[in-house]
């Protein structure tokens, strides 16, 4: 109102003209606000995606690609670094097909070795452990070579790795298989000429419920304290009273009921969905390329006879 009064108080035709323009503008604005709701044209409506049209992210992604999820510790969280690492990991996967595998799967890794004949080496073994996230993700393979247990730790996105192939896809009962170090060698022996076994599409990953019988003590770790389901302790093993007493003191049976501890050690589902929705298209394209690669068979030219 102060502005309008100042305009009307001006002398001359210019002030009156400005006042008329301002008055008409105010009338049009009030008329649009007072008037009832108008029906929007179909072209002006913004299409809203229904729940069925949204991008359906498979739940198995969080188990297939655990390294894409960031470290749950807030001290190591950095949104920009995590996004750049995911871009690097997807770029690396376009050159080397990293298959789906779990603890207990049998893998074959071909990598560059400057001291090997042909500058290339290959190792086959069972995955006994995998860990870390981002570009620092790693896994350990174990096999028996010349009667001696051999373990090799690989960084998943190491540029020296040329090929990773899953020869047998399966899971085990425990989150790690480090106890194979204290088990007979037969549980860790696999042929380097092993042929891959493919599962039919849509088949659930089988769980190998084999229970490993441990050797007699001494052991590398105190396996009896880890609540492992895949081991059998020989009845001839006798634990000392001091070891049993310390085991009871170190036991933490309430941890499985600590919801806050579980929350601090995991990434919330909302964050997981946001991450996988960002890389869903690239992962789907990589899965299609991997599926085509599986069905490819090398052409063997027939030999002439006679």
From TrEMBL:
Residues 27-43 have a biased composition (Low complexity). Pfam families: Ribosomal_L19 (PF01245). Keywords: Mitochondrion, Ribonucleoprotein, Ribosomal protein, Transit peptide. It comes from the Eukaryota. The keyword Transmembrane helix does not apply. It is found in: Mitochondrion. Its main location: mitochondrion. One of its GO terms (biological process) is translation. One of its GO terms (molecular function) is structural constituent of ribosome. One of its GO terms (cellular component) is mitochondrial large ribosomal subunit. Residues 27-54 are annotated as: Disordered. Belongs to the bacterial ribosomal protein bL19 family. PANTHER family: LARGE RIBOSOMAL SUBUNIT PROTEIN BL19M (PTHR15680:SF9), RIBOSOMAL PROTEIN L19 (PTHR15680). This is Large ribosomal subunit protein bL19m.
């Amino acid at each position: 109102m102060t502005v309008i009064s100042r305009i009307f108080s001006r002398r001359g035709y210019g002030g009156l003209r400005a006042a008329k323009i301002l008055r008409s503008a105010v009338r049009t604005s009030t008329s649009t606000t007072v008037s009832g709701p108008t029906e929007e044209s179909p072209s002006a409506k913004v299409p809203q995606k229904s729940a069925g049209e949204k991008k359906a992210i498979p739940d198995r992604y969080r188990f297939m690609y655990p390294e894409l999820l960031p470290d749950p510790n807030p001290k190591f969280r950095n949104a920009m670094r995590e996004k750049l690492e995911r871009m690097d990991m997807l770029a690396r996967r376009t050159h080397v097909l990293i298959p789906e595998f779990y603890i207990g799967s049998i893998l074959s890794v071909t990598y560059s070795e400057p001291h090997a004949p042909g500058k290339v080496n290959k190792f086959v073994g069972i995955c006994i452990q995998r860990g870390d996230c981002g570009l620092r993700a790693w896994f350990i393979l174990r096999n028996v070579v010349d009667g001696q247990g051999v373990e090799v730790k690989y960084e998943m996105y190491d540029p020296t790795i040329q090929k990773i192939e899953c020869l047998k896809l399966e899971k085990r009962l425990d989150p790690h298989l480090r106890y194979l170090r204290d088990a007979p060698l037969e549980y860790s022996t696999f042929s380097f000429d092993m042929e891959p076994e493919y599962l039919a599409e849509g088949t659930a990953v089988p769980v190998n419920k084999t229970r490993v019988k441990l050797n007699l003590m001494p052991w590398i770790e105190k396996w009896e304290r880890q609540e492992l389901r895949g081991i059998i302790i020989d009845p001839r093993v006798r634990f000392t009273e001091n070891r049993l007493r310390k085991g009871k003191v170190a036991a933490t049976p309430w941890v499985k009921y600590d919801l806050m501890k579980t929350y601090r050690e995991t990434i919330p589902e909302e964050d997981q969905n946001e991450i996988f929705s960002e890389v869903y298209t690239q992962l789907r394209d990589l899965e299609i390329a991997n599926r085509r690669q599986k069905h490819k068979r090398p052409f063997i030219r027939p030999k002439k006879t006679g």
